[in-house]
Amino acid sequence: MLQDKVCIVTGAGAGIGRATAIEMARQGARGVLAADLDRARAEETAALVEAAGAAALGFGGDIADAAAVEAMVAAAAERFGGIDVLHNNAGIHETGFTERTRIEDLDEAIFDKVCDVNLKGVFLATKFAIPYLRESAAGAIVNASSLSGLVGFEGAGAYCATKGGVILFTKVTALELAADGIRCNCYCPGVADTDMARGYIASQPDPVLAEQVLVASHLNARMADPVEIARLVCFLASEDSSFINGAAVPIEAGAMAWRGVHEATGAAS
Ligand SMILES: NC(=O)c1ccc[n+]([C@@H]2O[C@H](COP(=O)([O-])OP(=O)(O)OC[C@H]3O[C@@H](n4cnc5c(N)ncnc54)[C@H](O)[C@@H]3O)[C@@H](O)[C@H]2O)c1
Asked: Is 217 a member of any domain?
């Protein structure tokens, strides 16, 4: 539970971020700042958070822009009187910007953009939130990595590299902040049913087969509902996980538990 906690969720305008902001309110959070590049969607999420029982603030800004991130953190602290939880959720995938995503073809500017959002964004939000989290009785940072941070996917070199980077950045953050009583963990989802996942599937040469193969890699042969990921984020953000620190927690329905050919598709999963 997140009773009376103040939380920031980045990339809260859709998908897992929106589901988490709402779940935080359901779990008793006092205030939630819902930040997103798309201000209107951040404000929609804030309204949903309020409907779920917490005070909320929508914030529009680019997670890769240091000034915007500093303003985001300050806005949460000013409005709610402190910060207890930072959920670094904002993320992008190169398939959202181009069809030419194999390393040989990938445009340098798109590689940089994925790094700026997925990795530098985590650094910036963490950096600016630390002084506030230090004042919390139980500060916690929860970072979005991915199954793509643990294994490679073709045509996803930038995404996989940044998600692998998030795992090591999480460990260093935990190490540096343990003495301040701040924990930092990340989690590695399989495929959750969001705009990003749908965009990735649509970008594949055979989207129907791509969806079958992705889903078949989960032992529970379906995509995750974003709220299933949100519940893990809330657990890692709460004192219920007080002895978990520097971890990369899989939430992938057993995708890492096996390697084989799935009967339904005949494809390697
Ligand atoms: N959906 C999945 O299957 C899956 C699997 C593993 C990891 N993840 C990770 O979970 C996180 C959320 O994914 P999702 O599927 O909900 O994505 P999504 O695309 O559905 O939502 C991402 C949100 O982030 C926002 N955003 C994008 N760029 C931003 C920026 N520069 N600054 C601020 N906000 C920005 C978008 O506007 C959007 O509202 C990402 O870090 C993603 O890599 C998702």
From this structure: no
The answer to whether position 181 is within a domain reads yes
In Å, how far are 54, 99, 108, 135 from 205, measured between CA atoms? 43, 10, 23, 50
Which residue type, as a one-letter code, is found at position 15? G
The answer to whether the CB of 14 is under 6 A from ligand 1 is: yes
Q: What is the CATH number of the domain that holds 105?
A: 3.40.50.720
pLDDT > 70 fraction of the chain, expressed in percent and rounded: 96
Report the 10 Å Cβ neighbour count for 267.
14
Residue 119 lies in a domain: yes
Give pLDDT tens digits for 125-176.
999 999 999 999 999 999 999 999 999 999 999 999 999 999 999 999 999 9
What does pLDDT average to over the chain? 96
Q: Which two tokens stand for residue 65?
A: 């822009």
Query: Which DSSP helix (H) or strand (E) runs through 251?
Result: strand 248-251
Q: Is the CB of 149 under 6 A from ligand 1?
A: no
Q: Ligand 1: which atom is nearest the Cα of residue 196? A: 19
- Which protein residue has the closest C-alpha to ligand 1 atom 14? 15
Token pair of 175 as six digits = 């190490």
Core vs surface per residue 199-219: b (16+ CB within 10 A) or e: ebbebbeeeeebbbbbbbbbe
Domain hosting 133: range is 6-191+225-253
3-state helix/strand/coil string of 69-81: HHHHHHHHHHHHC
Mean pLDDT of 241-247: 98
Q: Is 268 contained in some domain? A: no
Number of domains in the chain: 1
- Consecutive H or E run containing 263: none
